C-alpha cells in the first residue's frame, strides 16, 4: 500500500500527471456507476421523438428509435472499457512473454521468435482481426479475442527489442553468477527493467484496442444488440449525422477521450515507476526489519572461511571457440592457469586478447554460441566438467564473485541494493531475510559504503559510481567467496575512486585470504596490487612472471606493454608510446607466433611455429615465456645479462 501511495504521489506531482489521474478516475467512476444510472434511460424506446435534436430531456439528442444518446454513451462506458481492457490483456499475455523470453533463453529460441514475430507483423492487424472474427464468430467475445491476438505481435516486437538490450547486460550476468533461476530472471530482472516502455505500450495498445473494437462494433461484427458499446452507438448515430450530428459525435468523443486518457495515464504512471523518480530511502518497516535483523541475526549462518594454500582454480588446455559456418574461430587457445588461495593475480592484455573470455569460461559464463573445452577445469578441487548444471551453478554461485567493468550496469536498476545483496544467501544458503540483511549491512560497511543500513534500502541510481562498484564487491562477499574475478573493475572510475577500489580488493585479500583475479589492460593497475602477472595475447598466455620482476619481462609483447605505461617521469613533450599494428582477428588463419606481424625481433622460425610457454632458464623465480627469440637464441643470454 505504501508503494502504491508513493507511486500515486509521484504521478500526481506534475500537472500532466494530475490531469491523467483525474481523467482515469473519471473514466473508472463512469464505468462503475454508468450502467446502473443510465442503462434504463438509454434503453427506453420513444419512436415519436426519433432523431430529435439536443433538448433538456436528452442533452445529446435521440437516435432512430428515440433513445437518449447521452444516457447510452454514459452507460456504454463499462462495456467499452471492459472489452478494450480484455483485448489488451490478451495481447500482453501472448506478446510480452513471447518477445521477452528470448532475453533469458538461448540464442536459437531468440532468433526463431524474431522470425515468427516479423512474419506476424507483416500481416495487417485489421485483416488478421477480421479473419479471426470470421472463424470465432461475431459478437463481443470474438471481437475481443481477435483484436487481442492481432495486437500481440506489436507487444512481442517491443518486448523483444527492449529485453535484447538487457539480455547481455552485466547485472543479468551477475545474477546468473549467483544462480538466479530463469523464472526469477524473467520477473525480477527483465520485466521490471522494461516496465516503463512496456507500460507506455500498454497505454497505447489499450487505445488501439478500444478503437479497433469500436470499429468492429461499428461494422456489425463486434457487440451485438441488445448490448451496445461506443462503436454500436456510433453506428446508430451515423445514420442521422446530418440532422442530429451529436448522436454520432458523442460516442466519437468518448472513444477519443478514453484513448487519450489511456496513453496519458500510462505515460505518467510509467514515469513514476522509474527508480530514478522514486522517493528516498524506503519505508520505516524496512528500517525496523533491519534494526531487528541487527539484534537477532544468527552469525552461525555465515559461511565458513576457506582454507589457505588450496588451489582455487586449475585450468589446463582451455579452449573457447565460436563456430562460423564450417569454421571454428578460436578466441582462447590452450590456456593453462593455476590460482592458489590468497593470491592476487593480474591477467593483462589488449582488448580481444581473450583475458575476459578466459575468466568468463572459468565462471561458467562463456557467451551463448561459444564452445568451451578443457583437459582440466577445476574449481576448489571439483571438476566443473563433471558437475551437473545445478551443482556447478551452486558451487560457483557461493564461491565465486564476479565484479564487472561498468558499475552503472552491474546492478539491477529496478531492485533495491539490499535486496540484490541478500538474494544470493537467501537462494543458496537458505538464510533468513533478517539475518541476510544484517550480513548485507556488514558487507557494505566492510567495503566502506557509508551509512550502510540506510544505503541498503536505496536503488543503484542513488549510489555514486565508486559506491556502486563497492556494492558490487560487497554482493560478491556475501558468501565469503574463495575467488573474486574483477574484470577491469576500475576502468569506468576516476583515478581517486580507482585507487580506493584497488585498495579494497587488496584489503579483502589480506583480511580473508580471498584469491583475486584482476583483469586489466593496464600494467600500472596490475602492478599496484598483484603478486603475479599473466600476459595474454591473441587467446594465448605469452608470459607469466612475478610482478616485482616486471622490469625483466622477456616477451617482446610484455615489453611493448610496459613501454606504454605512463608515469610521472613520462615526458609530456614526446608522443605516447603505442604498439604498432593490431592483434590478429579471430578469422585470421594462424600459423607461427601470433605476435610475429608486430614484433621487431621476429625470426624465420616465428612465422612457422607457435612457441610453447616454457620456463625462462636464467630466472631464479617462476617465470615462463612463449617466445623463440628468448628460449632458443642469444637474446636469452642478453636478457639474462641485463
Ligand atoms: S616468437 Fe618471434 S615473433 Fe613471437 S614474440 Fe618471440 S620473437 Fe617475436
Shape verdict? elongated
Structural class: alpha/beta
Uncertain segments are 276-308, 634-642
Mind describing the biggest β-sheet? 8 strands, mixed
Strand order across the largest sheet: 7-8-9-3-10-11-13-12
Residue fraction in strands: 5-15%
Which ligands does the model contain, each kind named once?
Answer: iron/sulfur cluster
Distance between the first and last residues' Cα: 73 Å
Mean pLDDT: 82
Radius of gyration: 33 Å
Q: Name the helicity range.
A: 40-55%
Number of helices: 24
Number of DSSP E strands? 13
Structure description:
With 642 residues, the chain is α/β, with parallel strands linked by helices. It is 52% helix and 12% strand. It has helices spanning 2-11, 15-43, 69-75, 77-100, 107-122, 125-136, 140-167, 170-177, 182-218, 230-238, 246-273, 284-296, 355-362, 389-399, 407-410, 417-428, 433-446, 452-456, 465-477, 495-512, 523-529, 556-563, 628-631, 634-641; strands spanning 311-324, 327-340, 344-348, 370-373, 376-379, 382-383, 400-403, 483-487, 515-520, 532-537, 540-546, 614-615, 624-625. The radius of gyration is 33 Å and the shape is elongated. The structure holds iron/sulfur cluster (SF4). Iron/sulfur cluster binds at residues 555-556, 593, 595-596, 599, 601-603, 606, 611, 627-629.
Q: Any chance you could write out the topology, listing elements then pairs?
A:
Layout: H1 2-11, H2 15-43, H3 69-75, H4 77-100, H5 107-122, H6 125-136, H7 140-167, H8 170-177, H9 182-218, H10 230-238, H11 246-273, H12 284-296, E1 311-324, E2 327-340, E3 344-348, H13 355-362, E4 370-373, E5 376-379, E6 382-383, H14 389-399, E7 400-403, H15 407-410, H16 417-428, H17 433-446, H18 452-456, H19 465-477, E8 483-487, H20 495-512, E9 515-520, H21 523-529, E10 532-537, E11 540-546, H22 556-563, E12 614-615, E13 624-625, H23 628-631, H24 634-641
Parallel strand pairs: 3-9, 3-10, 7-8, 8-9
Antiparallel strand pairs: 1-2, 1-4, 1-5, 5-6, 10-11, 11-13, 12-13
Helix pairs in contact: 1-11, 2-3, 2-4, 2-11, 4-7, 4-9, 5-7, 6-7, 7-9, 9-10, 9-11, 10-11, 12-17, 16-17, 16-19, 17-19, 19-20
The protein binds iron/sulfur cluster (SF4).
Amino acid at each position: 500500500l505504501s508503494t502504491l501511495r508513493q507511486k500515486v504521489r509521484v504521478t500526481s506531482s506534475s500537472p500532466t500527471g494530475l490531469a491523467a489521474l483525474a481523467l482515469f478516475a473519471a473514466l473508472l467512476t463512469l464505468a462503475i456507476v454508468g450502467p446502473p444510472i443510465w442503462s434504463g434511460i438509454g434503453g427506453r424506446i420513444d419512436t415519436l421523438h426519433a432523431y430529435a435534436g439536443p433538448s433538456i430531456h436528452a442533452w445529446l439528442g435521440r437516435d432512430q428509435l428515440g433513445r437518449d444518446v447521452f444516457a447510452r454513451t454514459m452507460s456504454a462506458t463499462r462495456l467499452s472499457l471492459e472489452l478494450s481492457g480484455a483485448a489488451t490483456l490478451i495481447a500482453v499475455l501472448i506478446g510480452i512473454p513471447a518477445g521477452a523470453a528470448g532475453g533469458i533463453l538461448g540464442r536459437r529460441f531468440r532468433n526463431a521468435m524474431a522470425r515468427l514475430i516479423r512474419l506476424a507483423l507483416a500481416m495487417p492487424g485489421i485483416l488478421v482481426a477480421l479473419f479471426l472474427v470470421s472463424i470465432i464468430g461475431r459478437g463481443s467475445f470474438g471481437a475481443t479475442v481477435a483484436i487481442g491476438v492481432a495486437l500481440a505481435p506489436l507487444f512481442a516486437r517491443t518486448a523483444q527489442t527492449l529485453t535484447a538490450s538487457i539480455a547481455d547486460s552485466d547485472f543479468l550476468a551477475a545474477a546468473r553468477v549467483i544462480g538466479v533461476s530463469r523464472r526469477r530472471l524473467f520477473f525480477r530482472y527483465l520485466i521490471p527493467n522494461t516496465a516503463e516502455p512496456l507500460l507506455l505500450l500498454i497505454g497505447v495498445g489499450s487505445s488501439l484496442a478500444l478503437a479497433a473494437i469500436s470499429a468492429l462494433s461499428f461494422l456489425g461484427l463486434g457487440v451485438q444488440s441488445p448490448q451496445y458499446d461506443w462503436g454500436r452507438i456510433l453506428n446508430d448515430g451515423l445514420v442521422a449525422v446530418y440532422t442530429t450530428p451529436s448522436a454520432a459525435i458523442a460516442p466519437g468523443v468518448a472513444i477519443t477521450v478514453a484513448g487519450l486518457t489511456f496513453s496519458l495515464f500510462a505515460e505518467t504512471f510509467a514515469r513514476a515507476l522509474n527508480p530514478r523518480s522514486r522517493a528516498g530511502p524506503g519505508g520505516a518497516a524496512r528500517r525496523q526489519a533491519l534494526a531487528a535483523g541487527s539484534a537477532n541475526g544468527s552469525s552461525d549462518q555465515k559461511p565458513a572461511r576457506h582454507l589457505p594454500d588450496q588451489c582455487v582454480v586449475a585450468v589446463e588446455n582451455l579452449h573457447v571457440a565460436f563456430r562460423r559456418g564450417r569454421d571454428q574461430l578460436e578466441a582462447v587457445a590452450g590456456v593453462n592457469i593455476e590460482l592458489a588461495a590468497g593470491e592476487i593475480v593480474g591477467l593483462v592484455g589488449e582488448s580481444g586478447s581473450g583475458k575476459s573470455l578466459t575468466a568468463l569460461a572459468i565462471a561458467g559464463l562463456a557467451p551463448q554460441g561459444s564452445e568451451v573445452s578443457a583437459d582440466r577445469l577445476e574449481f576448489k578441487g571439483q571438476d566443473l566438467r563433471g558437475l551437473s548444471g545445478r551443482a556447478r551453478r551452486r558451487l560457483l554461485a557461493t564461491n565465486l564473485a564476479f565484479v564487472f567493468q561498468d558499475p552503472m550496469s552491474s546492478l539491477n536498476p529496478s531492485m533495491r541494493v539490499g535486496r540484490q545483496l541478500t538474494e544470493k544467501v537467501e537462494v543458496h544458503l537458505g538464510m533468513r531475510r533478517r539475518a541476510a540483511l544484517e550480513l548485507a549491512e556488514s558487507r557494505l560497511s566492510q567495503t566502506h559504503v557509508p551509512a550502510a543500513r540506510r544505503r541498503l534500502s536505496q536503488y543503484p541510481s542513488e549510489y555514486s559510481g565508486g559506491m556502486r562498484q563497492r556494492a558490487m564487491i560487497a554482493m560478491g562477499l556475501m558468501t565469503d567467496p574463495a575467488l573474486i574475478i574483477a574484470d577491469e573493475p576500475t576502468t569506468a572510475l576516476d583515478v581517486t575512486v580507482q585507487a580506493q577500489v584497488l585498495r579494497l580488493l587488496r584489503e579483502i585479500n589480506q583480511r580473508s585470504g580471498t584469491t583475486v583475479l584482476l583483469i586489466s589492460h593496464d600494467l600500472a593497475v596490475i602492478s599496484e596490487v598483484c603478486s603475479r602477472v599473466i600476459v595474454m595475447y591473441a587467446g594465448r598466455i605469452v608470459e607469466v612472471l612475478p610482478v616485482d620482476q616486471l622490469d625483466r619481462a622477456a616477451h617482446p609483447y610484455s615489453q611493448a606493454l610496459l613501454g606504454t605505461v605512463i608515469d610521472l617521469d613520462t615526458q609530456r613533450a614526446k608522443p605516447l608510446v603505442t604498439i604498432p599494428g593490431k592483434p590478429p582477428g579471430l578469422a585470421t588463419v594462424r600459423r607461427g607466433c601470433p605476435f610475429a606481424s608486430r614484433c621487431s625481433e621476429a625470426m624465420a622460425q616465428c612465422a612457422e611455429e607457435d612457441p610453447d610457454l616454457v620456463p625462462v632458464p636464467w630466472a631464479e623465480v617462476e617465470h615462463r615465456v612463449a617466445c623463440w627469440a628468448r628460449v632458443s637464441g642469444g637474446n636469452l643470454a642478453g636478457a639474462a645479462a641485463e
